[in-house]
Specification:
It contains 5 helices and 12 strands. The protein is an alpha/beta fold. It has one domain: 3-Layer(aba) Sandwich (Rossmann fold). The strands form 2 sheets. Strands 3-4-1-2-6-5-7-10-11-12 form a 10-stranded mixed sheet, sandwiched between helices. A two-stranded antiparallel sheet has the order 8-9.
């Protein structure tokens, strides 16, 4: 009898010479080994910790979290991808995370985030446990909210910061080195404020799975429309407006300690059931990446 594929998980980091920090990383991948529960801040994660990866030529996916958030907010999606045969790396964006929000709303943050994507991919490919099990070739990228900006910028989008983000109070180009390894993008309620200029997204040529919420008041309909109209080939965008969903409805279900009225990321518009919707989202993402990578 074949053993069931579970989720391996490894906590590591990589140096960011520009910020002079170590960038925390979560690696998830298929594994066949006993799983144990571990508490990580407010989150519980059951995984085979530091277990050997199962399989070879695993396609790699990088996941970018939202503003002042944590990789663990997208842990359920990452775990589903791991069970489906993907390797996933989730960087914590230092300066714009739950632990360190010191650069939120700055030009530096807009520059740093796409670089973190490339550093995370480099680290996953060089990881002594996982690296040899990865497939060579295009990788996937998933981004939620400002993580959507991050993925689009890393994929070739040309962003401009606003005057409130610029050190001199004037809009200016966000200098980003695109990562040619990105072969397919998943955008969940993406924030696209920085791509309003003409031709800003023409350099994005990858196929895109786009999900937006009909009741999103933070990145409303125009953000998804900007992606659909702005990329090189709009026919490459698979867009669904999810009825009743809000901005945070694409995040995983939060633990009871955070599921309270004064914590907006845990809340959905009345009538929307995040727990029921999530498995459909996970499978949409897995199916898209399987087809496009």
């Amino acid at each position: 009898m074949t053993a069931a594929i579970g989720v391996g998980c490894r906590l590591t980091s990589c140096p960011d010479a520009e910020q002079r920090v170590d960038l925390p990383l979560v690696l998830m991948y298929p594994a066949v080994a006993p799983a144990t529960l571990r508490r990580l801040g407010p989150y519980d994660m059951t995984a085979a910790w530091d277990a050997a990866p199962a399989g070879t030529s695993l396609p790699l996916v990088v996941v970018s979290h939202g503003n002042n958030a944590s990789p663990w907010t997208l842990r359920d999606l990452a775990a589903h991808l791991a069970r489906e045969g993907f390797a996933v790396v989730l960087p914590e964006h230092v300066g714009n995370s739950r632990h360190d929000a010191s650069l939120a709303g700055t030009l530096a943050n807009l520059r740093n985030r796409p670089r973190h994507v490339s550093l995370a991919l480099d680290a996953a490919m060089a990881d002594p446990l996982l690296g040899a099990h990865l497939r060579q070739g295009p990788v996937g990228a998933v981004g939620l909210s400002i993580g959507g900006y991050t993925v689009l910028a890393a994929a070739g989008g040309r962003a401009w910061c606003g005057p409130h983000e610029s050190p001199d109070g004037r809009p200016q180009r966000v200098e980003v080195v695109p990562d040619a390894r990105l072969g397919a993008l998943v955008l969940l309620a993406p924030a696209t404020f920085w791509f309003a200029a003409d031709e800003a997204l023409r350099g994005v040529t990858q196929p895109i799975l786009l999900r937006t919420g009909s009741h999103d008041t933070i990145t409303p309909a125009e953000h998804g429309q900007r992606v659909c109209a702005g990329v090189a080939d709009p026919n490459q965008v698979e867009h669904e407006v999810v009825p009743g969903a809000g901005h945070f409805s694409f995040l995983g279900v939060f633990p009871p300690s955070l599921n309270r009225p004064d914590f907006p990321p845990a809340q959905d518009p009345p009538g929307f059931d995040r727990a029921t919707y999530q498995p459909r989202l996970w499978e949409d993402v897995a199916r898209f990446l399987r087809r496009r990578l």
